[in-house]
Amino acid sequence: MFSGIVEEAASVVALKREQGNLHITLRCSFADELKIDQSVAHNGVCLTVVSLPGDGTYTVTAIQETLNRSNLGDLETGSLVNLERSMKMNGRLDGHIVQGHVDTTAVCTEVVEEEGSWRYTFRYDFSKEDAGKGYVCVEKGSVTVNGVSLTVCEPEADKFSVAIIPYTHEHTNFCRIKPGTRVNLEFDIIGKYIARIGSLS
Questions:
Q1: Angle at CA 52, nearest 5°, toward 32 and 56?
Q2: H or E element in which residue 118 lies
Q3: Residue 83's closest CA among 33, 147, 34, 142?
Q4: Beta-carbon neighbour count of residue 154 at 10 Å?
Q5: In the prediction, which pLDDT does 92 show?
Q6: Are the CB atoms for 118 and 160 separated by under 8 Å?
Q7: 53: CB partners within 8 A, 6+ apart
Q8: CA 76 remoteness from chain centre
Q9: Gyration radius of the chain's alpha carbons
């Protein structure tokens, strides 16, 4: 369980393909605090730490299903990945409830600077079937973009915008997102439950 509050944007130092799997090695400031089997969100995708060489890096593995559903297959050496360790039960929920299960990807269509902040617009594939699963955005609702908990602005059937403050821009990989960049989306879990209950009634 996560909150969508990114701790660090870490650099990818190595990528290794093994059949349908992708082993991703990253360098981050808290690598030496991690443990094997620990869960860490990577651009919003919950992955398990599988290797800790002790040099400030660690490795996780993304299976083919994860690569198909997320943007992790787009990573290159030097890419920045948003990281968040799992929530502590005695901590504050500063973002919103995030599971680390990416629902789909979206493409950035516009970035507009607005007097000290940035407005990003994203478009994703829309279908009534997906909407029935709760894969929709609502005005002032929550959405997770590359693991960042954000408030939705101006949602339409297949797109929405978010406003990014300077701190988020500087401390996450939003600083590298531009039109054409693919990002991971996780829609609000509460909305998904409501949609599921509604489909059964």
A1: 45
A2: strand 117-123
A3: 147
A4: 12
A5: 78
A6: no
A7: 59
A8: 17
A9: 17
Length of the chain measured in residues = 201
Average pLDDT over residues 44-55: 97
Q: Predicted confidence band at 95 (pLDDT cuts at 50, 70, 90)? A: confident
Q: What pLDDT digit, counting tens, does each position of 122-176 carry?
A: 999 999 999 999 999 999 999 999 999 999 999 999 999 999 999 999 999 999 9
| DSSP type of residue 173 | G
Cα 140 from Cα 123, distance rounded (Å): 17
DSSP line for 49-88: EEE--SSSEEEEEE-HHHHHHSSGGG--TT-EEEEEEPPP
Give the pLDDT band (50/70/90) at residue 201: confident
Predicted local confidence at residue 57, as pLDDT: 98
Tokens 């789909």 found at: 104
Letter string b/e over residues 178-198, b meaning 16 or more CB atoms within 10 A of that residue's CB? eeebbbbbbbbbebbeebeee
Contact partners, residue 62, CB within 8 Å, separation at least 6 = 21, 22, 24, 45, 47, 70, 72, 73
- What are the tokens at 136? 């929709």
